Amino acid sequence: MLSTRDLVLCALFAALLGGLGMAPPIPLGFLPVPVTAQTLGVMLAGTILGAKRGGIAALLFVMLVAAGLPLLAGGRGGIGVLMGPTGGFVLSWPVAAFVTGWLAERFATNANPIRLFAVSVVGGILVVYAGGIPWLSLVAGLPIEKALFGSLAFVPGDLIKAGVAAVAASGVRRAGILPIHA
Amino acid sequence: MLGLYLHRESPVHRLPAGAKLGGLLLVTVAVLALPGAWGALTAGLIGAAVLVAARLPAGRVLAELRAPVVMLTLLFGFQALLAGGGWEETAVAVARFAALILLATLVTLTTRVMDMVDLFERLFGLLRPVGVNPAKMALMLALTIRFIPLLGEQVREVRMAQRARGVERNIAALFVPLLVKILTMADDLTAALEARGYDPADAGTKNSTQR
């Protein structure tokens, strides 16, 4: 059962996803394109809150986007965006956060950044692409291998985000104020 | 909280959120079941009719559609170039989804965020038998809406602090303090809720969360 603190944590991380969408993109020193950090927030929801609470946090966020709040990067939102070609990449976030958290609870319980990185890659990248690419292929009438190929352009940026998520989660765990392991 | 909602006096705006969402679902299923070109045509005509009935400015609606349409067109052009044959099918598929996206956008533009959230809460009631507590979901949605501006502010604040220290490009220096702040905020907010008599074990009805 969710405690009051769990409810607050889920809402705060859902709001963090929204806050990251509103913030201007973060410049990374070594990368020419700035990254928007929302998928990073999804990974962090999983690694820091765990499977259940992380999944709920991402679900709350997706529901508010569907309800018509312009929370996605660039001020986009609404059911139209979710049904659009890139909608699958957003709709998969609750599952992505859940899987990231599920794996983190089993394989990345300490502050080891390598393990946190691996967990973020599987949950935050593989799961998101597994939802987004077939969706893109369906909506755009594109053969799946072409949708896959087109999406590969985003992999380097996503790997960097997983790295950042791992370093950040590791830092938070070392700070020792963790709510994890409900 | 500002949403994408555009207010007009129209019968479409007055329809309950559930009717609009249900209608969208039905039309989507029907359009996908119809053969391609007919599906696209049906969805396009319904979209145009709703657009007129809702008295929305066409320019504004099309602006919402620009991003997906540009993307679909690019993909479509790319696809036509590479595949050569069979591009008519792709064109039909793209038109069909563009029309459905138009319909979905119209639902969003004519429905208040809070009406949609209320609808989600009622839908969660249906999930009670599988252990979902609709009152808790409702409270979390309300809290999230309240926290979004707060968190936007926190993100800005931490970024400015790190810029002042010359470490704005060190991304760990951004996220660790932000997350630590969020986790300590959680303690205060939990205490605030409980001080107001919120009891998660007693969260059976919507009213018990609003006392």
Please provide a written account of the structure.
The complex is a heterodimer of chains A (182) and B (211). With 182 residues, chain A is mostly helical. Chain A has one domain (4-175): Arp2/3 complex 21 kDa subunit ARPC3 (Orthogonal Bundle). Chain A contains 9 helices and no strands. The model of chain A is unreliable at 29-34 (pLDDT under 50). In chain B, helix 2 packs antiparallel against helix 3 (36-53), helix 3 (36-53) runs parallel beside helix 5 and helix 7 crosses helix 8. Chain B is extended. Residues 206-211 of chain B have low confidence and may be disordered. The chains are: A mainly alpha (182), B mainly alpha (211). The interface between A and B is large, with 68 and 81 residues. Chain A: Its main location: membrane. Chain A: The chain crosses the membrane at residues 31-49, 56-73, 79-104, 116-136, 148-169.
Helices, strands, pairings?
The complex is a heterodimer of chains A (182) and B (211).
Chain A lengths: L3 H19 L15 H12 L1 H16 L12 H5 L3 H5 L1 H15 L5 H27 L4 H8 L3 H21 L7
Helix pairs in contact in A: 1-2, 1-3, 2-3, 2-6, 2-7, 2-9, 3-6, 6-7, 7-8, 7-9
Chain B lengths: L10 H4 L2 H17 L2 H18 L4 H26 L3 H24 L2 H14 L7 H31 L6 H25 L10 H5 L1
Describe what is shown at a glance.
Chain A: It is a multi-pass membrane protein. Chain A is mainly α and 182 residues long.
**Total number of β-strand segments of chain B?**
0
Query: Structural class, from helix and strand content of chain A?
Result: mainly alpha
Question: Could you tell me which chain pair has the largest interface and how many residues each side has?
Answer: A-B, 68 and 81 residues
Percent helix range of chain B:
over 70%
Provide a count of the helices of chain B: 9
Largest sheet of chain B: none
Largest sheet entry of chain A: none
Overall 3D geometry of chain A?
globular
SSE pattern of chain A: HHHHHHHHH
Report the strand count of chain A.
0
CATH architecture field of chain A:
Orthogonal Bundle
* Number of alpha- plus pi-helical segments of chain A: 9
Broad shape of chain B: extended
Transmembrane segments (chain B): 21-54, 66-87, 94-114, 134-152
Family (chain B): Belongs to the CbiQ family.
Subcellular location (chain B): Membrane
Membrane topology (chain B): Multi-pass membrane protein
